Amino acid sequence: MEPAKIKAVMPVAGLGTRFLPATKATPKEMLPVVDKPAIQYVVEEAVAAGIRDVLMIIGRNKNAIANHFDAMPELEGKLTEKGDDRKLGHVQHSSSLADIHMLRQGEPKGLGHAVFRAKSHVGDSPFAVMLGDDLIDERDPLLPKMIEVNEQKKAMVIALMEVDPEQISMYGCASVEATDDPDVVKILDLVEKPAKEEAPSNLAIIGRYLLTPEIFDVLEHTQPGKGNEIQLTDALKEVATDDDNVDVYGVIFRGRRYDTGDKLDYIKAILQLASDREDLGPDLRPWIKDFAATL
């Protein structure tokens, strides 16, 4: 399937409680990572993979996200009057990235429920689910490989990442079978946050999924699980272990990923991305070294 026919679904209805009080009135997806809100990186990733249709599943107090991706004639007019083409370009860029749609989740029943709400929008085609907490470095594209595997296998595809076995209890974990591609595995089972001793591998699920419409039939009867929410992992586990359903494969991501869902990792992400930038890195990197020497 052409990437342009694949739609992206981005669940952004979470409350962002780990970042209170910053997220009391500001959506966590709008917190800046250097000089762009986190959600813009995710939209840009989708667009770079050829996806032009993005559905955001939003909750209450998420109007700032819609505003960010909308045109702002008053601001654009003032920047035009000033002749500030650079800033004008930045403002217009976010509103011209893709066709972005907003849909209310309604009741906050979990990630699985948010994905289910996208059913009428995505129709009968495969679609990408992209979580805003995971930023994938643009130099290490992940979605194109997932789209390729979906096309070859006619299967659902999830993104996996090797983690320290000591950390596997923080993630959903995959039981896998090797294929002839070292970066692609077949998913046999999924275990949510297993103890180190019980984990079937050190492959953790990260926030990128390439799903097929069969997921909706499963989500429709998936019962609430952890946190009394409908979990997407539970639905994927059912698909992976059902011989009568489509297969589930995993793409092992070995590139740069930034976790913005945790305060410490969020700060690390800003420093990593800023230090790599041509406009900031030359001054920032020496400062980081000097600062580290004082600790």
From TrEMBL:
| Alphabetical UniProt keywords | Nucleotidyltransferase, Transferase
Residue spans making up a coiled coil are none
Q: What class of enzyme is it?
A: transferase
Pfam families given in the database record: NTP_transferase
> EC annotation?
2.7.7.9
Reading the lineage from the top rank, the first entry is Bacteria
Q: Which reaction does it catalyse?
A: alpha-D-glucose 1-phosphate + UTP + H(+) = UDP-alpha-D-glucose + diphosphate
Q: Which residues cross the membrane?
A: none
- The Nucleotidyl transferase domain, residue ranges: 9-274
Gene3D superfamilies reported in the protein's UniProt record: Spore Coat Polysaccharide Biosynthesis Protein SpsA, Chain A (3.90.550.10)
UniProt xrefs under SUPFAM superfamilies: Nucleotide-diphospho-sugar transferases (SSF53448)
Q: Name one GO molecular function term.
A: UTP:glucose-1-phosphate uridylyltransferase activity
A GO BP entry is: UDP-alpha-D-glucose metabolic process
**What family does the Swiss-Prot or TrEMBL record give for this protein?**
Belongs to the UDPGP type 2 family.
Instruction: Name the chain's protein.
Output: UTP--glucose-1-phosphate uridylyltransferase
The gene is galU
